[in-house]
Design brief:
heterodimer, A: mainly alpha, Sodium/glucose cotransporter, 18 helices, B: mainly alpha, 1 helix, 0% strand
Chain lengths: 492, 42
């Protein structure tokens, strides 16, 4: 294996991204173009781009590591994600698209502000606090992944690898806006799918074929082939399985994914995109878990299970394909980081500056400010990533949960429960977000390590229901919701 | 792989896929119905 080959593949990939970035930048001269690609994206782009954004380096390094560490117990993650993606496209996407088009919303806080007639900008300020804090944690985890990937593939050292990842993403994100982000995410999603379908097809035969792999796993630890893993049918096992399923709940209402529905050309694109998205996530997740299981047989005793994918690619593929695998890991990192940076930039520029602090600001100033926000968030995130090397899997899941618990219950109730009020929605956002953090800090270890998204969602729904029932909804907003749902029509 | 693990894998993939396929078929059926009624009117 030669580093020159790896670098060559990497440079080729970055040139393609640059071309897409420059191409996308032509349509990003105004706020709607920059943050939503002018609402003109086709089905296949929103499908792959939402999955690539949702999955991140967690899929390639974290979930393969999960398959390595716990075996078939990781199938619960597949259940949650496939169900989460399907439910989002079937039930959430069309009414959300209908309402955001009616409100001419560009961001999720835009939508919540219009839906609940919020003249005091509560949703905008609250959303900014939640999104900015969680995006920093999320991007830090991705930079951790970048450091590990570059170090494993090119032996750059962890710190240099994290810096290289940040520089690439910052450069390319600031060039092209959301259109470039969505189309590069599409390309990155296709690369990730190709990699994760190919890898187990090569790794399982190398590990002794299907039967040989299963025999070796059983010999290593019989719990690797049990659905409830080493926990068995216990409270700990149920909490673990339910926690894995809950990872998929975030697909129902996280802002970085909802923006894909908002950016769709029309309802027809959403109807067609769903099937692509579900097939794609099945390929992603099944491939990742099976690769991890084969990796357990080929490389038993890895100090860090999250390095199993680079190890497999080194051992099983020639140098050119090892370069492709490095590109795919970077693709997973970049497809998430660029979307998160655009999301953070949009809440600062669109929700805070344009709508709260400086309504008359010109477009050029807003555009420059957006780019400055992406750089600042990137620098804060790398400071966090370098100060403490954490496991990618759990750090990503914490940030994933924080954003999802704050937004998903509120978005769901705003679409399907007409009794939801402004005060109820605010209470739900605060309750979901605070509970997620409090659970991780004080309660998680004492309650079977139950994943924080579950208490976060429960608290959000509870707070929203109690406060909404104690306050009155806006009659106009209720009538508008009913009209929008009539326009969308039935589901089946 | 044990039967229980196969069952979990099939359910994990099948639940979401079935939901999406049902939705996709319903939308195609609705679009066909709209086209038919539009054609009939002309």
């Amino acid at each position: 294996m030669t580093s020159a080959t790896l670098v060559g593949v990497l440079v080729g990939y970055l040139v393609v991204l640059l071309v897409i970035g420059v191409w996308g930048s032509r349509d990003s001269s105004d706020v709607k173009g920059y943050f939503l690609a002018g609402k003109r994206l086709p089905a296949w782009v929103i499908a792959f781009s939402s999955n690539a954004t949702g999955e991140s380096a967690w899929l390639l390094l974290g979930l393969t590591g999960m398959g390595y560490a716990v075996g078939v117990h990781a199938f619960w993650v597949i259940m949650g994600e496939v169900l989460g993606v399907a439910t989002a496209w079937v039930f959430v996407a069309r009414p959300f698209k209908e309402l955001t088009d009616r409100y001419d919303a560009i961001t999720v806080p835009d939508y919540l502000t219009a839906r609940f007639r919020d003249t005091r900008h509560l949703f905008r300020i609250l959303s900014a606090v939640i999104i900015l804090s969680m995006v920093v944690a999320y991007v830090a985890a991705q930079l951790t992944a970048s450091g590990k990937a570059f170090d494993t593939f090119l032996h750059t050292g962890y710190t240099a690898g994290a810096w290289i990842g940040l520089a690439i993403v910052l450069f390319y994100t600031s060039v092209g806006g959301f259109k470039a982000v969505a189309y590069t995410d599409f390309l990155q999603g296709v690369l990730m799918l190709g990699c994760l379908v190919t890898l187990p097809l090569v790794a399982i035969p190398a590990a002794g074929g299907w039967a040989g792999t299963m025999d070796a796993l059983r010999a290593a630890d019989p719990a690797l082939l049990r659905p409830m893993g080493s926990f068995g049918l216990s409270m700990g096992g149920l909490a673990s399985a339910f926690g894995f399923v809950a990872i998929g709940f975030a697909f129902l209402g996280s802002p970085q994914l909802l923006t894909r529905f908002m950016a769709a050309r029309d309802h027809r694109e959403i109807e067609e995109g769903g099937l692509w998205a579900v097939l794609c996530v099945i390929g992603f997740d099944v491939g990742a878990v099976l690769s991890g299981m084969a990796g357990r047989v080929l490389f038993p005793g890895l100090a860090d299970p999250e390095t199993v994918l680079p190890e497999l690619s080194h051992a099983l593929f020639p140098a050119f394909f090892t370069g492709i695998f490095l590109v795919v890991v970077l693709a997973a990192i970049m497809s998430t980081v660029d979307s998160l940076l655009i999301l953070a930039s949009s809440v600062v520029v669109r929700d805070l500056v344009q709508n709260v602090f400086e309504p008359g600001a010109d477009q050029r100033r807003l555009s420059l400010l957006g780019k400055a926000v992406t750089v600042v968030i990137g620098l804060v995130a790398i400071a966090l990533a370098l100060s403490e090397t954490r496991m990618i899997f759990w750090f990503v899941l914490f940030a994933w949960s924080g954003i999802a618990a704050a937004f998903t219950p509120v978005v769901l109730c705003s679409l399907f429960w007409k009794r939801t009020t402004r005060a109820g929605a605010v209470a739900g956002m605060v309750g979901g977000f605070v509970t997620t953090i409090v659970w991780v800090v004080w309660f998680k270890e004492r309650f079977w390590d139950l994943y924080e998204m579950i208490p976060g969602f429960a608290a959000a729904f509870l707070c929203m229901a109690v406060v909404s029932l104690a306050t009155a909804p806006e009659p106009e907003a209720v009538a508008e919701l009913e009209d929008a749902r009539r326009a969308v029509g039935r589901v089946f | 792989m044990p039967l229980a693990a196969w069952l979990l894998l099939v359910v994990a993939v099948g639940l979401g896929l079935t939901l999406e396929l049902a939705f996709y078929r319903a939308r195609r059926r609705d679009r066909r119905a709209v086209r038919t009624s539009a054609g009939g009117g002309a």
